[in-house]
């Protein structure tokens, strides 16, 4: 396992902040043609009315990992979802016709080899009841189980318990992560909605202080040095360790709507969250790879007993 580069910077800010759901990759982003397992998910009510959209990642052919506030099963309006996996996502959406011709976004699943998509009738989260804020356990992890499998050459893998703690113990503030997802690209001076898969490099600020509460991953949205950044990160999109496919968190919330330097992901390498994911995933069409910081891998093929 490649080590990251230096020591973590402690987070000193203690000001009261507004917490907003994560919304979109910004900064020096680039089009993401690499992470085919990352998809754009849209949620609907029982009548097919569009409710909201997020990002997420397939961790096997049918299990799609996202944020809990995206897959809010306590919301009586949320009934089912459609997920598009092409880089273009909904970028060809035409307001005049009400859909993206090549993918069907936001109301149709036009499934082709170049523009794959799937429906999901089973939506889950780990008890999410609202974004409580920084330093709190928001239980902000969710899943969608695809109605039919999507076979890809690779999927996202899960960081094993304590993965980020090992990163913190061995490395530091130059540790880098990759955010990938769909969404707007700017908030000032104007909001531009791309609906296409973008990726950017993030720098880790801290995981170990009370500010993170043991469950949140604090990321810098202004890494500098020519690197990219994320304003919101697109809710539910995976945070990948360095340039690997190892998921260490899902994009969760930002401090404010002005992209003022900090974003937070919900850690997926804690014992409770990893166990919940593995206990509720679907293994009908394949297992889930779990990776330790030392590079040891294991493939989980059934819910842990």
Based on helices, strands and strand pairing, what is the structural class?
mainly beta
CATH fold topology of the domain at 36-156: Thrombin, subunit H
- Share in helix: under 10%
Q: CATH superfamily assignment of the domain at 36-156? A: Trypsin-like serine proteases
Mean pLDDT: 81
Q: Describe the strand arrangement of the main beta sheet, using strand numbers.
A: 13-14-15-19-18-17
Given the C-alpha coordinates, what overall shape results?
Answer: globular
User: Unreliable stretches, pLDDT < 50, 5 or more residues?
Assistant: 1-26, 185-192, 223-233
Number of helices: 2
Number of strands: 21
Corresponding CATH architecture of the domain at 36-156: Beta Barrel
Strand proportion = 35-45%
Written as H for each helix and E for each strand, in order along the chain, the element string is EEEEEEEEEEEEHEEEEEEEHEE
Radius of gyration: 18 Å
**Main sheet properties:** 6 strands, antiparallel, barrel
Distance between the termini: 29 Å
Highest CATH level, the class of the domain at 36-156: Mainly Beta
Characterization of this structure:
This protein is mainly beta. It has a domain of 121 residues: Thrombin, subunit H. It contains 2 helices and 21 strands. It has a 6-stranded antiparallel beta barrel with strand order 13-14-15-19-18-17. A 6-stranded antiparallel β-barrel has the order 4-5-6-11-10-7. β18 and β19 form a beta hairpin. The longest helix is centred in the last third of the chain and has 10 residues. The radius of gyration is 18 Å and the shape is globular. It starts with 19 loop residues before the first strand and ends in a 5-residue tail after the last strand. The N terminus is likely disordered.
